[in-house]
User: What shape does this take?
Amino acid sequence: MSRYLVTGGTGFIGRWVTAQLLVAGHEVRIFDASPRPAMLDDVAPGLGALPECVTGDIADGSVRQAAEGCDGIVHLAGVMTVDAAADPVRAAQINLIGSLHVFGAAQALGLRRLAYVSTAGVFGPEDGTHPRPMTHYGAQKLAVEGAARAYCADHGLPSVGLRPYIVYGPGQSSGIAAGPSVALAAAVSGMEATIRFSGRVGFIYVEDVAAALVTAVTHDMSGASVCTLAGETAEMDHFVSRIRAAVPGAHVEIDGAPLRIPGDLAETPLPGPLAGLPVTGIDDGIARTLAHYRLRAAAGEPT
Assistant: This one.
């Protein structure tokens, strides 16, 4: 049995990472500004009582103490596009400086297993090959990728970073990228929902991202790999049509400009044990998300 630190471990992706680690028999310590272990019960009843929770600010260096006694780190703490645009300086303190504290903690403690989330937003709208972000969030995450390479070159610290496109599934409720997830929850409850961006994007199911992170942190890696996860690429109109096919009468609309990211991104070949991990298609991902919310509704719990 190993112990893993998960920063942002009760957030949208974090709760699925934490759950997969716990189900696999590992111990988990969550580091978060506001840990909400009850969110883990949304994944599976009773999970919220299992992890150790540490409250702290990722930007102040206290993650170093939280990482003591751990065998690896999954770094997810951060703020996303809208919040980063509203306060770029504070976002940089969290996204970039916070990540430097995580890398520094891993290096100081001699940890050899580190996985983190970047973003497909490192790419600008016209080039899906050469990173040229047009958002503060994308720019800060691109800097994090560079820092990971520097820590590998300077200290031999291996890491795996993932650049997911639009992550969707049960549990996401905030940020512009949450639109598809919010729409699915609304479809089950009979509410209206508006997705605030349009165009062609890659849809990647949240459990696929969690599985890649868990696989990365539980296996020996080398170098400082960064992999793009595009999932299944489709027009937003297609995604909404599949929701309506699964839930006739669903009130889901699209109102917004395309994202500042290319519509088509090539999946990066995944290194070592990550190669061959399954990719959940849109229809299956929608079905699994709806089933999750319907189960909660049947139990009398809010979606």
In short: The first strand starts at residue 3 and ends at 7.
